[in-house]
Amino acid sequence: MSATSVQFTVAAHIMAALGFFRGREIPSATLAESVNADPTFVRKSLAKLSRAGLIVTTRGKNGASTLRHAPEQITLLDIYRASAAPATFAIHNYPVEKRCPISRNIKGCMSSVQKKAQDSFENSLDRITLADVVGEIRRASQ
Q1: Phi, psi of 64 (to 5 degrees)
Q2: Each residue's pLDDT tens digit in the chain (142 positions)?
Q3: Torsion over CA: 7, 81, 75, 46 (sign)
Q4: Measuring CA to CA, which residue among 85, 114, 90, 122 is closest to residue 6?
Q5: What is the pTM assigned to this prediction?
Q6: Rounded to whole angstroms, how far apart are CA atoms 25 and 58?
Q7: How far apart are CA 91 and CA 93, in angstroms?
Q8: Rounded to the nearest 5 degrees, what angle is found at the Cα of 14, between the Cα atoms of 9 and 18?
């Protein structure tokens, strides 16, 4: 069985924390504690978000992160792309059995399906802002 990627949800978790506590500089150790994940993995996620221009990060003993833009200006698509998460699903790379019409054609067919699914997924993410996520978290925590 394939491993499930959590890159996007970890990046979204980090961004939601930064949005929820907007205006505060949050250390990576605090974010790792919130995610309940290995601090190194969280720092790698922070680096990706920083390279994408979504956050500002300072390094060193007192290093911390803040949002670069207002939560209303950041979409889940921005976060998804910054996280470098894999596509909606992967297509196997098993050798083609030339005598089988399914084996000869399934990869091309599934590539088309994957593109449609990925486009739909990304269009959905592009309509949801970080402010929407933070608002939902605020409502759920009352």
Answers
A1: -160, 175
A2: 445 789 999 999 999 999 999 999 999 999 999 999 999 999 999 999 999 999 999 987 778 999 999 999 999 999 999 999 988 888 888 999 999 999 999 999 999 999 999 999 999 999 999 999 999 999 999 8
A3: positive
A4: 85
A5: 0.89
A6: 9
A7: 7
A8: 145
Structure-block tokens of residue 85: 């998460």
Tokens 């939601």 correspond to 16
- CA-nearest of 30, 39, 12 to 130 is 12
Residue type, position 14, single letter = I
Burial of 61 (0-12, 13-18, 19+ CB in 10 A): exposed
What type of residue sits at position 89? F
DSSP 10-75: HHHHHHHHHHHTTTS-B-HHHHHHHHTS-HHHHHHHHHHHHHTTSEEEE-STT-EEEESS-GGG-B
